[in-house]
Design a protein that fits this description.
Length: about 575
């Protein structure tokens, strides 16, 4: 048995069989072939195309019942590409003249095509890059006898072991079959960790080299509570963990007993506890965990799919379904936050030297007005179906806030002119997740209906520590005095003009931080739905004066270590908070 220690990213215990999801970019061999072998290479190519075609056909049939015609359209275009005479002939021609193996010929042709399309003016042509990539990879996998592994097609319960997982892979995987995740890379607030928590899949990240230590089919235990993974456990350990798993589940059920009760402190301050969601399927879990609404709907996950960006109509339907499901409860939809660690399919993360500080969120939207306007139109149209709040991510200062507000007003004017109904006076909020925004939050507050503090990024940018990098995860500290001072400033500036201060970063769902945030005056906590009952339990067992007193002590402290050990001690003893990391 091997025990590995990583970062506890999503709580719970998973016991099962390891499934290695490895590098999706195989090394493509290149070798010369003789003139006599050309026909053999061509035959291999045609056979691989045939296999890829029937694979797509099967996929189409399987997804016919669960996906709309629009969503399946991309599979049709893949089939068309595989039957395209020009494409097939061009490969045969190269085989006959270059005397190279077919894998290499296909791979280099694909690269050439992608390079050409990537630079095209026409956005339709640029969007075809992802299709070419996908289709060629499918054929290559057959040529290289690699089974195409798609996490969406998993049919057996597994514990996923992987080096890294793109948010787009995580969102499309078959969540019912993935019982646990163990990953070499990643930090607690990487988007993969956030998704694992949302889907309630126990996960340990930042394990460095589990992919080299585990083999397909190994028994494996993922202890998401303590950030540990046990590989090939002995019988006794597995039995012990089965009991731990049962205890954990019982505790979850007990906490659900609080669902109907308000999150109210002993001295009567009512706190709003909302849920963060990434995909609309999560709405069921909102009611199940007693959330007061949605504090953050990460709309970019609608865009992270192989079919490309959703149309206005598709977005309208997605937003509408969430708004209708929530009735009069507020639904805060954040406009597209693409970039950073979330890339549109086909976009390479190497395009920018420093994507975390790059073309992200509103920066991307302001330079892609069509994308932005389409989303705002869909949001406004959907607003008549519920209680919508719109929120802008990654605002760095008043100029950006003015710019995005102007686009929103322009879209409102357009809809009025077209006679399209939308709800007037939709609250529009600003995410505070960049230090410059926190420091100028007095200015931003005057132009915002509410604030939501995005601590995942705020911590990353304040301490200059990449939130997804496991090597420096030890520096990623919510209790850093620098972070606490910024959070305090933001809440005070919000209250000074009478707007509410919320938080939708992971710190809001961290039981260790609850008392501090309460004492600082936070009005709204938004987190993965499954985290709500525990936070509610703490809020209900404390008074504001107790929380304020604790904050007074904490703000005098000079280092995060000091704050951390003090808070752990209090929370463990006084509130029986189970300390996991
Ligand atoms: C944050 O930064 O805290 C946040 C909620 O946004 P995201 O995690 O999607 O960057
Ligand atoms: Mg953020």
């Amino acid at each position: 048995m091997d025990e590995l220690v990583g970062i506890s990213a999503s709580p719970g215990i998973a016991i099962g069989t390891a499934f290695l999801y490895l590098d999706d970019n195989p090394r493509v061999p290149r070798y010369s072939v003789s003139r006599e072998d050309v026909s053999r290479e061509s035959r291999r190519f045609h056979e691989a195309i045939g296999k890829a075609r029937s694979e797509i056909q099967q996929l189409k049939e399987r997804q016919n019942t669960t996906h709309s015609a629009d969503q399946l359209q991309f599979l049709d275009s893949h089939l068309l590409m595989l039957s395209d005479a020009e494409f097939v002939e061009s490969i045969d021609r190269k085989l006959a003249t270059e005397y190279l193996n077919v894998e290499w010929v296909l791979f280099s042709t694909m690269k050439g095509l992608i390079a050409k399309l990537d630079g095209a003016e026409d956005s339709y042509l640029r969007e075809r890059v992802a299709d070419i990539h996908d289709v060629s990879k499918r054929v290559l996998n057959h040529l290289m006898l690699r089974e195409r592994i798609s996490l969406a097609d998993l049919q057996q319960e597994v514990v996923l072991v992987t080096h890294d997982l793109l948010p787009s892979d995580a969102v499309s995987m078959n969540k019912h079959m993935v019982k646990g995740i163990a990953m070499d890379a990643g930090g607690r607030t990487s988007h993969t960790a956030i998704l694992a928590r949302s889907f309630e899949i126990p996960a340990v990240l930042g394990l460095s080299n589990i992919t080299r230590q585990a083999s397909l089919g190994d028994r494996i235990i993922v202890d998401g509570n303590r950030g540990k993974v046990l590989l090939r456990p002995d019988r006794k350990t597995e039995k012990r963990y089965l009991l731990v798993q049962q205890e954990w589940r019982k505790r979850e059920v007990r906490l659900m007993g609080l669902n109907e009760l308000p999150a109210e402190t002993r001295d009567g301050k009512l706190i709003s506890l909302k849920a963060n969601i990434e995909v609309s399927e999560e709405v069921d879990s909102i009611a199940a965990h007693g959330a007061d609404g949605i504090g953050l709907y990460r709309s970019e996950f609608l865009f992270l799919r192989a079919e490309g960006a959703p149309s206005e109509e598709e977005q309208y339907r997605a937003y509408r379904s969430v708004l209708e499901a929530l009735g009069e409860k507020p639904v805060t939809i954040r406009t597209l936050d693409i970039g950073g660690d979330k890339f549109l399919p086909g976009e390479s993360e190497n395009r920018e030297r420093n994507p975390i500080l790059g073309w992200r969120a509103v920066r991307f939207c302001l330079s892609h007005p069509r994308v932005f306007i389409t989303q705002l139109r869909a949001l406004l149209r959907a607003s008549v179906h519920g209680n919508l709040r719109i929120m802008f991510p990654m605002i760095s200062g008043i100029e950006e806030l003015n710019q995005v507000t102007a686009v929103l007003e322009q879209v409102e004017a357009e809809l009025r002119e077209e006679g399209v109904p939308f709800r007037e006076g939709i609250p529009v909020g600003t995410m505070i997740e960049i230090p410059s925004a926190a420091l100028t939050s007095d200015i931003l507050a005057k132009k915002s209906d509410f604030f939501s503090i995005g601590t995942n990024d705020l911590i990353q940018y304040t301490i200059a520590v990449d939130r997804g990098n496991e090597r420096i995860a030890y520096l990623y500290e919510p209790f850093h005095p620098g972070v606490l001072r910024l959070v305090k400033t933001v809440i005070e500036n919000a209250h000074a003009v009478g707007i509410s201060a919320g938080m939708c970063g992971e710190m809001a769902g961290d039981p260790l931080a609850t008392l501090i945030l309460l004492g600082l005056g936070l009005d709204e906590f938004s987190m993965s739905a499954s985290g709500i009952p525990e936070i509610k339990r703490i809020i209900r067992s404390v008074s504001m004066s107790e929380a304020e007193e604790l904050v007074g002590t904490v703000l005098e402290m000079k280092s995060f270590q000091e704050v951390d050990s003090f808070v752990r001690n209090v929370m463990e003893k006084r509130f029986d908070v189970q300390i996991y990391s």
